[in-house]
Design a protein that fits this description.
Blueprint: E1 4-5, E2 14-24, E3 30-40, E4 50-53, E5 59-64, E6 67-68, E7 74-77, E8 80-83, E9 91-100, E10 110-114, E11 117-121, E12 141-150, E13 156-159, E14 162-168, E15 173-184, E16 191-194, E17 197-204, E18 210-217, H1 226-243, E19 251-257, E20 264-265, E21 270-274, H2 287-302, E22 311-312, H3 318-336, H4 339-358, E23 370-371, H5 380-397, H6 399-413, E24 417-418, H7 420-431, H8 440-443, E25 449-457, E26 462-470, E27 485-492, E28 503-505, E29 508-510, E30 513-516, E31 520-526, E32 533-536, E33 545-548, H9 552-561, H10 565-588, H11 597-608, H12 614-621, H13 626-633, H14 639-656, H15 658-667, H16 678-694, H17 700-710, H18 714-727, H19 732-745, H20 749-760, H21 767-774, H22 785-798, H23 800-803, H24 809-824, H25 826-833, H26 844-858, H27 865-875
Parallel strand pairs: 2-12, 18-19, 19-21, 22-24, 25-33
Antiparallel strand pairs: 1-23, 2-3, 3-9, 4-8, 5-6, 5-9, 7-8, 10-11, 11-16, 12-15, 13-16, 14-15, 17-18, 20-21, 25-26, 26-31, 27-30, 27-32, 28-31, 29-30
Helix pairs in contact: 1-2, 2-3, 3-4, 3-5, 4-5, 4-10, 5-6, 6-7, 9-10, 10-14, 11-12, 11-14, 12-16, 15-16, 16-18, 17-18, 18-20, 19-20, 20-22, 24-25, 24-26, 25-27, 26-27
The protein binds (3S)-3,7-diaminoheptanoic acid and zinc ion.
(3S)-3,7-diaminoheptanoic acid (B3K) binds near residues 322 and 375.
């Protein structure tokens, strides 16, 4: 396949300032008439052909300025349209008519049908599946869209922008016209038509303009959209307060569809959502679902400024909108919920998804330099690490200067397609700082590591940190340059407070942040009488790994006393990880793992510490996952031994804290009316975490069964079902609970996804058979991305012992399924295929089987560009 390179960027010869589209919708034969105002750029000769992108298109008519083109004047293939001899005039009107079959579009890109609703997905390159176009983000155009459909089939007709007319047509057809005054790239185009229910509301902006808000859902599900609507209004208000950003159209619509390749899409004025991220009530959605809905509604809304008003020059700049918008949605959630808890959750996600990417064959810079398939670059690196890079800019500049930089960014680049260089420049301009070394965070892949040791000289009252940075090699980047790493720190005294020091040399230290810029720094603090404990990378100020020599006593002290909540959590988590890794080694040596009572006892103290928020306590008690442990071990992974080590620690903590846990579990029982707010969710999270431990003690299955039966919301019900399925596989309680759940929710696909997901997570070699059988369940479908991700995605990316079965049976299933999904939906298949990205860290026997599986996909004929790209990079 073709490789696209950043350095090859070149502006187009032609522009398309205006785009008129008429759709005559029909499931198997939709007609699209595009009328494009084409402008030749100054200095470009009239003889230069106009070349438009297409993807599988059928051209039925073509005219310029009203004149049908002669066959000699153009050349059309399904994937390209060339106007070989454009008119001499610098501006002309090009009419293109294409015919589409949305009902047969199973890739879910371009115009397709989802449960009888017409909808579109154009990012990144789906618009070219609708009409021939300069389908790239630096071509900004003002769109006017006319949608025609049979009234009974599609009473609702939506597109971007503001409504601009509607009416009836002959033979039961009708139409609506939409006009979007803001020039936009084609990837933000959207159309929705169908029979949908509406939730209406309104929002008055900062300057007093009234915006009509609509959320459209499957008829009958309107009451499930209330939480999403509330989240939308809070997002609109927050963006005004936090970033001074006001909404700019008269209407803002959101549509929920059930077949969608990702979470949601920020089309201008018409966001389209996976219904999983809109529909919720206590009966069907968990607290995690509510939090995701809030975050994704906010994320897509925030794109209106970071993405839409200022878009990307090319797809290499994807992080310009995604990393920044993730940062904005993180800040929003932190303000709406608990900042400390949110930060811990963010870091857990980053480590679970981005670190393995950065440390494996698919590693790439936050701003990549090349790609074969752009859809494979909507990654945790671009999104999550991209957000961390923006956060570091704020850490380095301080909040006020950061905000001034953002203001300048909006002022300077509104209406433009910008680059990362433009973004960095605004912060250099407002701060007067040189961010060139810092900008390596965008250009260099890999997770930097800091090795840190310390010495205290009581006689001289000196405390010295020796810090060394290194960035491991990544594909096609064997030599790395030195990074600028902002490391927030505190020297903690025995009273838990920061120790004051009189001076510091060896690095620039500002506002509690050490600026690491060289390979090695000896940072010497003077006037330090007592030996401090080191609280490092506070608040996770930089997305790095640390190798720190720190006494266990200090680690325990910080786990109990660090006044930075994140670092306190980190200290405990590090202790747990260390214990789990030694337990893993003991298991491999055929020994029974043992754990220090100081560690298991601390778990009880944290659980019972009323000064800590319940949500924090729940996160602290959640042991590092099997994948987390595997990542920290790094190589020669035996998932079964990791599983045994983790089980042993869970049981040891449960046994050591039987009474504390059980009393607290009882005290946290709550009969108040359900509320999805963060504090209530935190109490449920803690109680459900305790249930997980208590279920390992005698009577545990019965306890979980009672929890399940008495649950009054999905959070508790799903938690209990998870405990039963994962900890009490095959028990009568589990069999009954799974059957009850299935019977109760058989007709609710989103809830059935949880049922699939839980069963796909059950550890052990037998799960492959259950998963295979579930692919035949009436509620399952290989055509629906949510179903596929719940069952197949969970099994392959979140079930270490099940998927990495020693005999390779999990991998065989993976190959079959990926290839089966690929026939319909290459994007979804490519995403699934990333499950084997860490195959090289497995022990040799599994490694060989995983490689065989990847090779068998690679040698399949006619692979899509999406899947071939992932598999070949994974094997390289
Ligand atoms: N921008 C979309 C993602 C599009 C993915 C295309 N393969 C959603 C988002 O990040 O907000
Ligand atoms: Zn986004």
């Amino acid at each position: 396949g073709q490789v696209f390179k950043l350095e090859d960027y070149r502006p187009t010869d032609y522009l398309i300032p205006e785009t008129g589209l008429t759709f005559r919708l029909s499931p198997a034969a939709t007609r699209v008439i595009a009328v494009l105002t084409v402008e030749r750029r100054d200095g470009i000769a009239a003889s230069v052909p106009l070349v438009l992108d297409g993807d599988g298109l059928t051209l039925s008519r073509i005219a310029i300025d009203g004149q049908t083109l002669a066959p000699a004047d153009f050349f059309a293939t399904p994937d390209q349209l060339t106007i070989t001899t454009p008119p001499a005039a610098p501006r002309f009107q090009l009419l293109i008519e294409t015919e589409l079959a949305p009902a047969h579009n199973e890739a879910l890109m371009g115009l397709y049908r989802s449960s009888n609703v017409y909808c579109t997905q154009c990012e990144a390159e789906g618009f070219r599946r609708i009409t021939y176009f300069l389908d790239r983000p630096d071509i900004l155009s003002v769109y006017t869209v006319r949608v025609e459909a049979r009234h009974h089939e599609a009473p609702l007709l939506l597109s971007n922008g503001n409504p601009a007319g509607s009416g009836e047509l002959a033979d039961g057809w009708h139409y609506a016209v939409w006009h979007d005054p803001f020039p936009k790239p084609s990837y933000l185009f959207a159309l929705v038509a169908g029979a949908l229910g509406k939730v209406a509301d309104s929002f008055v902006t900062l300057s007093g303009r009234k915006v009509e808000l609509g959320i459209y859902v499957e008829p009958g599900k309107e009451r499930l959209a209330g939480y999403a609507m509330d989240a939308l209004k809070r997002s609109m208000k927050w963006d005004e307060e936090a970033f001074g950003r006001e909404y700019d159209l008269d209407v803002f619509n959101i549509v929920a569809v059930s077949d969608f390749n990702m979470g949601a899409m920020e089309n201008k004025g018409l966001n389209i959502f996976n219904d999983k991220y809109v529909l919720a009530d206590q009966e069907t959605a968990t607290d995690a679902d509510f939090a995701n809905i809030e975050a994704i509604i906010a994320h897509e809304y925030f794109h209106n400024w970071t993405g839409n008003r200022i878009t990307c020059r090319d797809w290499f700049q994807l992080c310009l909108k995604e990393g920044l918008t993730v940062f904005r949605d993180h800040e929003f959630s932190a303000d709406q919920r608990s900042r400390a808890v949110k930060r811990i959750a963010e870091v857990r996600t980053l480590r679970a998804h981005q670190f393995p990417e950065d440390q494996g064959p698919l590693a790439h810079p936050v701003r990549p330099r090349r790609y074969r398939e752009i859809n494979n670059f909507y990654t945790a690196t671009v999104y999550e690490k991209g957000s961390e890079v923006v956060r570091m800019i704020r850490t380095i500049l301080g909040s006020e200067t950061f905000r001034a930089g953002m203001d300048l960014y909006f002022e300077r680049h509104d209406g433009e397609a910008a680059t990362i260089e433009d973004f960095i420049k605004v912060f250099e301009d407002v701060s007067g700082r040189d961010l060139s070394q810092f900008s390596l965070w965008y250009h260099q892949a890999g997770t930097p590591n800091l090795t840190i040791s310390s010495t205290h000289n009581p006689a001289a009252q000196e405390f010295t940190l020796e810090i060394e940075q290194s960035v491991p090699p990544t594909p096609s980047e064997s030599r790395k340059r030195l990074m600028h790493i902002p490391l927030a720190f505190s020297l903690v005294g025995t009273d838990g407070k920061a120790i004051a020091y009189s001076g510091v040399e060896g690095a620039s230290v500002e506002d509690g942040v050490i600026h690491i810029r060289k390979r090695r720094h000896m940072v010497r603090f003077t006037g330090v009488a007592e030996r401090p404990a080191m609280s490092l990378n506070r608040g996770f100020s930089a997305p790095v790994t640390l190798s720190v020599e720190q006494k266990a006593d200090d680690q325990f002290f910080l786990a109990g006393h660090d006044n930075d909540t994140f670092s306190r959590w980190q200290a405990f988590n590090t202790l747990l990880t260390d214990a789990l890794i030694s337990a893993f080694r003991q298991v491999l040596d055929g020994r029974q793992p043992g754990f220090a009572s100081r560690l298991t006892g601390l778990a009880g103290k944290i659980a019972d510490d009323e000064t800590l928020e319940p949500a924090y306590r729940a996160l602290a008690l959640a042991l590092p996952s099997e994948a987390d442990i595997a990542r920290d071990i790094g190589k020669n992974i035996d998932p079964d031994a990791i599983f045994s080590a983790r089980e042993a620690l869970t049981a040891a903590i449960a046994e050591a804290n039987r009474e504390i846990f059980s009393d607290l579990y009882d005290r946290l029982a709550n009969n108040d009316a359900f509320s999805p707010d963060a504090a209530s969710a935190g109490r449920r999270a803690l109680r459900n975490t305790l249930l997980d431990y208590l279920s390992l003690l005698p009577g545990g299955a019965a306890l979980a069964a009672r929890h399940f039966q008495s649950a009054t919301n999905m959070t508790d019900r799903a938690a209990a079902l998870t405990v039963l399925a994962l900890r009490h596989r095959g028990s009568p309680e589990t069999v009954k609970a799974l059957a009850d759940f299935e019977a109760k929710y058989a007709t609710d696909p989103l809830v059935m996804d949880k049922w699939f997901q839980i069963q796909a997570s059950v550890p052990g070699p037998q799960t492959i058979f259950a998963v295979r059988a579930l692919t035949g369940h009436p509620a399952f479908s290989m055509a629906n991305p949510n179903r596929v991700r719940s069952l197949v995605g969970t099994f392959s990316s979140a079930n270490q012992t099940g998927f990495h079965r020693a005999d390779g049976e999990g991998y065989r299933f993976f190959v079959e399924t990926v290839l089966q999904v690929e026939k319909r939906n290459p994007q979804l298949a490519a995403r699934l295929a990333t499950a084997l990205r860490s195959w090289r860290s497995l022990e040799p026997a599994r490694q060989a089987k995983a490689r065989e599986a990847l090779l068998s996909i690679a040698k399949t004929e006619n692979l899509s560009a999406d899947l071939r790209d992932i598999v070949e990079r994974t094997l390289a």
